Amino acid sequence: MKRNKLLILAFLGLCVFGLTGCAKREIKNINSKGTSIICFGDSITFGYGANPGEDFPTQLGKLLGREVINAGVSGDTSTEGMLRLDKEVLERDPLLVLIEFGGNDFIKKVSREATIKNTREFIRRIQARGAMVAIVDISAGLFLRDYRLLFAKIAREEGCIFIPAVLTKLITNPSMKSDFLHPNAAGYKIVAQRIAEAIRPFLSQNAKTRALDNLPI
Which domains does the chain possess? Predict the structure, then answer.
């Protein structure tokens, strides 16, 4: 009986440790002094399959009550995105950058090694500019599962926010998508809601540090 109690206590201790470990994982540049929230990615970010203004960055902006810049280009791989990083992200005074690449890397057979290298370079250059970084993962179930695991590992190692599986239950629901992969307006709204829920705590924490420094929120 005593042994069973000890095992239960040990299990509960591990659960608490796991929860607090997640909560205390530091995000780099939480005190960012930047001004722009930028969504940087491919056709999912661009809003392919929906009308202008129905893309998830625009809908995210409405949920947050502030402008969110859409720096998505349909068809881009992470390698092609690298060519746009300076002008479309780093020169826009970023506060938080949401990176969403990987789908076209998979489709166009960009090597995993290149995708990992590009993702780490995105993160490190953005962080060097003083901004927070979030990785938006578009996997769903087994679809792109390997990328989800890779991006989760990179996020842990680089001090990023990780937003997993934003297309879950969307790509299997015809009423939420415009083709085999891309959401429609209703689907992008759900993507925006999932992302807003994930980043709000970090934006709130940043707002507190800005208030202490007398910076505009």
Answer: 35-212 (3.40.50.1110)
